[in-house]
Structure formats: C-alpha cells, structure tokens
User: What shape does this take?
Amino acid sequence: MKGIGVSPGIVFGKAFVYIKNEIIISEELISEELIEEEIKKFNNAIVKSKNQLNKLKEKTKSEVGQKESEIFQAHIMMLDDVEYTGKIKYEIEKNLYRSEKAVKVVSEEFIKLFECIDDEYMRARADDIKDISDRIIKNILGIIDSDISNFDTEVIVIANDLTPSDTAQMDKKNVLAFVAEIGGKTSHTAIMARSLEIPAVLGFNDATKVISDGDYLIVDGLKGEVFVNPDNETIESYKIARSDYYKKIKELNNIKSLEAITSDGHKVEIAGNIGTPDDLQSVINNGGEGIGLYRTEFLYMNSDSMPDEDIQFKAYKDVLEKMNPNPVIIRTLDIGGDKNLEYLDMDKELNPFLGLRAIRLCFEKVEMFKTQLRAILRASVYGNTHIMFPMIANVGEVIKAKKLLNECKEELKIEGIKFNNNIKIGIMIEIPSAAMTADIIADEVDFFSIGTNDLCQYTLAADRMNEKVSYLYDHFDIGVLRLIKKVIDASHKKGIFTGMCGEMAGDIYASVILLGMGLDEFSMSASSIPKVKKLIREIKFKDAQELSNKVLMMKNSQEIKSYIKQRLKELKIDVIE
Ligand code: PEP
Ligand code: MG
Assistant: This one.
C-alpha cells in the first residue's frame, strides 16, 4: 500500500496505533449569566496550553533542535494573538457559544483563510491552527490522550494525524517510523521526521483502519510503501533492500566532507544552491564547499514590501559570514517569468519568460537594482563574495550592469562605507545567445555559471512550466550539451572558470558528462551533494573525458542516457541515484 514517502529509510517492526480521544463539541448554548464563567474557562485553557507548549518547546530544542522548536513558539504567539483570542471571546458573548464551540468556529475560519493560499507551505500552516485549536479544546474539556511519551519496546506509530505536539511529546528513541493518514512533504511532521532521521510515510489513506496494534510492518520511507503482515518473500527481499540502503547511506556519510577529486587527481568544486539563509546549514551538513547560487529573489518574495538596503545587507552578511572563507555567489534579483512581486506592480505580459525578467527588470528599475548592489557591496567585507547577473543576453548588458555596480562603489566611497573592491563578477549563461558569444563576454567577467533550467527552455523553445512540452525539455538534448561544451571551452581559453547552478549539475548521470567536459564547479540542492561527490571520487577524469567526447557525437538523449549507464557499469562505478 502506498502513501507519500517524506523521510527516507527502511524499517521493520510492530505497529502502535495511536487513537486520539474524540473531541465532542456541545451545540448547547449558555445563558447570559454564564458568559463570564465561560470566558474564564477559556482563559484558563489558554494558560494551561501555554505551559504545555513551553515544555514541548524546551523538550524539542534539546531533543531535535532550535529550528524545529520554533514551531511551538509560533503556537504560543498564536495564543497571544488578540485577533484570534478576542474573536473567540466575542463569539462566546455574542452567540452564547460554549467556549469549546467558539474556539472551533473561529479556528475553522482561520484555517479556511490559510487553505486558500496558493502555496503548499502556507497551506500546511492550517495544520498548525488545527493543532492549537485541538489543544485549547482538550484543555477546556479536560480530555487526555493516550500516553505516547513512553513506549516499552520499539514501535512504528500509526495515526490519523500526527501534529507537531504529538511528535514532540513522543518517546522518539523507541519510534522506528511514522505512518499517518494526513500530511505531505512540507507538513511539520515531515520536517520533524527528516530532522530526526525517522522514516515516515504520510498521506496513507485509512492507515488506522487497515493496520491494527501489533501488526508486523515494513515501512519504506523513500518510496512511501507500507507492507502489513508481509509474506516471507517480501520480508527477505526487503531485508536485502534495507541493508543495501544503509550501506549506501554510510558510504555517503563517510565521503561527504572529503574533496571532490577524481581518482586520477582532477579536482572540482561542489557547492549548494540556496534560497534563504535558512537553507545554508543543510548545504554545510551535506559537505557543500561553497554557495554556487544564492537566489536573492526569495528575500523579496517573502516580504510585503521592497526589502530595504539594511535588510538585504543583513541577509547577505549572514550567508557570507557563515560560509567564510568558502565562496558565495550572490545572484542579483531574478524576478519575472513565473516569479512575481505583488508590490512592484508589473505589467501583464504575453510571454513573461521572454519579457521583462531578471536583469532586464533591474535595468528598468535602476534604483531598486542599485539598492541591492549597494547591500551586496557592503556585505562583501564579511566573506568571499561573488556577484552574478542573471538572464544576460549579450555583452552590452554585462557592461551596463558593471557600470551600475561601479556607480554604487563610487557612492559608497564618497559615503566612507567599506566594501571589497575586488569581488568576483560573473554572469549566468542561460540564454543561447550568451552561450554562443561566451568568448566575447569572457573578457568582461571572472566566471560563468550555466543555468540549465532556463538554457534548456530557451534552446529548445520548450516552456519549463508546461507539462505538454516536457518531452522536449531535456538537459541531455544534444543541442544543449553542445552549447554547454562551447561555454566551458570558451571560458578556459580566456582563463576564467565555469560552474553550473541549474538542476542538471545535481543529476548524477549528467554530472559525468559535465565533469568530462571540464566543468569547474557544480552547484546543486544540498541533498544531491554527497552522491555527486561520491561519483566524482570514484571515476577517472580521463574516463569521464572519453565518455563526454563520445556523447557529444551522439544523436539523441535516449542513446546518451543508456550509454552513460552502461559505461558506468563497465567502469564498475556504483551509482546512487
Ligand atoms: C537556471 O535557470 O538554471 C537557474 C539556476 O535559475 P532559476 O532556476 O532560478 O531560473
Ligand atoms: Mg534561470
């Protein structure tokens, strides 16, 4: 049976079905004389809830980590939110609801608001309000759930829903895995399970009905599969899968902090892509040697108004300091295409991906652009700063962007503000015309970073967001591969380096071709870093070169992909996908 695999790992064990006491809300109204008493009941429940949440926060901080414990701080803040608590008291007074009913009605309104937001993360926040509401109601009614804070033996916990409060109070050292009917990849249970490295399957329909206490289970948290009382054959095959999986994890853990150097001594750099400073730790934990792409637009998108120079300065400084002395490539604002900024009042365009996007928008809104450049320059004294301009179409745009950067430097000099005058300047190569003129542009910059996510869509004229043309959108396409090779060669001839920060760099099979082509830096999502490092450390540069030369003569991507798989087998390289 299948759910959504949200935290990887394969475990075997006995089920513990966690049934929570049902909350029954009385529809009976109160008389006016009881209003005060009902509000008192509600206030007491708030105090009790806060005490419980403070304890859970401290427990989570010591058992899991500071970041995960902040969920409970958010819950406490909700209890302090007068808009929420005031509305509940108002419902008691106005409609003569019992306090538990008032909490339910108001919470449901808040939940609806969150569920309407077109963002998976924000929708998942509706679960937090449900969690808070259940806690207050249980405290009003004196309901106590079954104890999950102490298990005698190791168990796999099966539940309808596991709220952050449930996972926090759980006896986690005896929990082998979680299976729940509710939840998805970005729910807090998923985040918590990944941090604790407990395998988890969520969104598993009817889990509490089809699984009983004591059932023997196999849970595969990667594939999202759960086997209930499996036969011997399944057990045996999963035992093999489990030992293979943990052997690979161990291998990756052992190599992740080592250099990315081929077995015949060719060294490359493996870096991580981040959207916010919060993503940094994961890059460091996975052995990232730098930040190859800091997508600064998230700073703008996560704000209701334009972030000012100081806010930006602090964010850039934070990342630079934490990575120092390793390099950080800060990409200037890439808004437009599918990324919109409400407060910028941008015109609707017929072809937004071909319109006023990224550097083009920055040239249109020079003050906004210069604010960002000044913030980056000010932060540059705190670490190994690289600045990168996105969506460059020709050398003229590079010259124009550099001129604006120089204007900012002059302003800062006059104001007596310190900055590093030698920060490295680079561009993203994601438009075919820039790839074709890489030799010309190379005279103006210190590095290139190939953005294959866009380079693919512009080379193949296949919208990266459109499922119907996804058969064309392929970074193994020979046209794309030849452009990449051209860029790398042109940069090396001019003595500058080329990296890649598009998704292709983290594709294990593509990474062999790129290595062979001479790519200098690979930047990817944190979780891909160990497996790409492992491959690079196992292969010989000369074999990768031979492989990429062969591939560049092939006609289609199917042929390319199967050739790489077969060649890696011949070279006895064990690939972890
Ligand atoms: C790219 O285009 O490959 C890239 C890394 O930029 P983004 O995905 O942010 O457009
Ligand atoms: Mg791009």
